[in-house]
Amino acid sequence: MINHCVKDNRLQEIVSHQSMVLIGNGKRTVFWHDTWLANYYLADHFPTLYHLSNDKDASIDKMGTWDGFEWTWFFYWTRPLRGRNIGLLEQLYVVLSIVHLDNEADDRLIWKNNKSERFSVKSLCGLLSPTHYPNNGFSFAGI
């Protein structure tokens, strides 16, 4: 979610540290490339599984199916998993076991730097100020 909205690396770093994704139905969050589960990308944490995935750019909602009110993860691989890869998949399932999707709610971004948990330009400008990031190279000159 964050990666698609923010192209500047410095700004992306600030936004990724000051926000978190609250998963709803999983339609707006990319499974392998967004930091939605922990402070890392699943593609980086499970590179072998990512490499074998047929769904490298899929959103979370495309990585499983609803069975009534229960979500079941389902993955498509370029080839059948064997040996060590099955162990990696089991580790991924353990990591995913804490996830509870909500089919009725949208994914949303929580802004940690604001009591309302909503993003504001004021709170972002406060984070970009020299007192927070003295050598960030960002300038408001000419804006």
Question: How does this structure look, described?
Answer:
This protein has 143 residues and is an alpha+beta fold. It has one domain. The protein is 31% helix and 11% strand. It has 6 helices and 4 strands. A two-stranded antiparallel ribbon has the order 1-4. Strand 2 and strand 3 form a beta hairpin. The protein is globular and about 50 Å long. The C terminus is likely disordered.
Q: Which labels suit this protein?
A:
single chain, 143 residues, alpha+beta, two-stranded antiparallel ribbon, two-stranded antiparallel sheet, 6 helices, globular
Shape: globular
The percent range for helix content is 25-40%
Mean pLDDT: 83
Strand fraction = 5-15%
A few lines on this structure:
With 143 residues, the chain is an alpha+beta fold.
Task: Furnish the topology, listing elements before pairings.
Elements: H1 2-5, H2 9-18, E1 19-22, H3 42-45, H4 47-52, E2 64-67, E3 70-73, H5 84-96, E4 108-111, H6 121-128
Antiparallel strand pairs: 1-4, 2-3
